[in-house]
Amino acid sequence: MTAASTPVRTPVRAGAQTPRRRVRSGRGAAGKSRAERLAPYVLVAPAALIIGVFRLYPLALGVNFSFTGDGDRNGQAVGFDNYATLFDDPLFLASMRNVGLLVLLLPVAVAIPGLLATFVYMRVPGHRVYRGVYFFPAVLSPVIIGAIFNLLLAFDGPVNALLGAVGIGPVDWLGDPDVAMYAVVAVHIWATFGMALVVFLAGFATLDASLIDAARVDGASLPRVVRHVIVPGLSRTIQFVVVTTMIGMLTSMFGLLYVMTGGGPEGSTYLPEYYIWFQQGQMSRPALASAASTVLFGVMLVVGLAQIAVLRRTGRED
């Protein structure tokens, strides 16, 4: 009897234990997948909180403040009066024209560090030295750089002396309204391209070197390698450098402008950030300065999105 009952009890016990084990394992898998889904949000939450508190909230306050008045109407709602005042101000219009000039010069500001990074990546003679030399200006203060180039670009300075030695007349680099803005932008590019160079070198670290070697074996020239191999391979890096360089040109030139030209001559080197400082610090019109800041933010947003769209389309076509 014992032998007959044994096979009956054994499947019952096995059948009772098996489903329990499966249920437990199923709950564990479900719990693990839920934790994995929540992990990215938990990791991003501190950064999102900091951005929201210290970036987005002050931005919203600034936009709201731009619809209030200055002086006797301080704190009173004035609608779009500040924006109407902005677009009737010749200095602000000059600053917006200079923004358009910066957009046109942006390809130069991106191409210079891109080409130099290409040469460093291809290990031209002295590439280790060049890497440090190119980055060195990025650690200097804009005030120091402005003071140095004030001496170099003075009407009787070394640059004009060198031009005179080759038979070219002196140029009033910082006193001619048609030249001054180009001079300041050139100094800014020289002072800041080292950071973009580092970003490009980081992008090159992710590039498949075998593609470049194959192109060289096939007899492709350097311009063809850059156009058909390097540019498509670094499309994401180029997008990042374009946007950050544009933002830097619109928001990080105050020191150079203040030291080199003071917004002159004749307001030809005004940029929105210098106009904002002038209205806030010199004219005591913070609401008008907030309106100018809002316009500058809108310009940067539109230009940045347009640049990304163009670069993405170009990348797909290549």
UniProtKB/TrEMBL annotation:
Predominant location: membrane
Residues spanning the membrane: 38-57, 99-121, 133-155, 179-207, 240-260, 287-311
Annotated membrane topology: Multi-pass membrane protein
Domain ABC transmembrane type-1: 96-307
SUPFAM superfamilies named in the record: MetI-like
Entry keywords, A to Z: Cell membrane, Membrane, Sugar transport, Transmembrane, Transmembrane helix, Transport
Disordered: annotated segments: 1-31
Subcellular locations according to the entry: Cell membrane
GO CC, alphabetical: plasma membrane
One BP annotation, GO: transmembrane transport
Pfam families: BPD_transp_1
Family: Belongs to the binding-protein-dependent transport system permease family.
Protein name in the entry: Multiple sugar transport system permease protein
Organism of provenance: Glycomyces lechevalierae
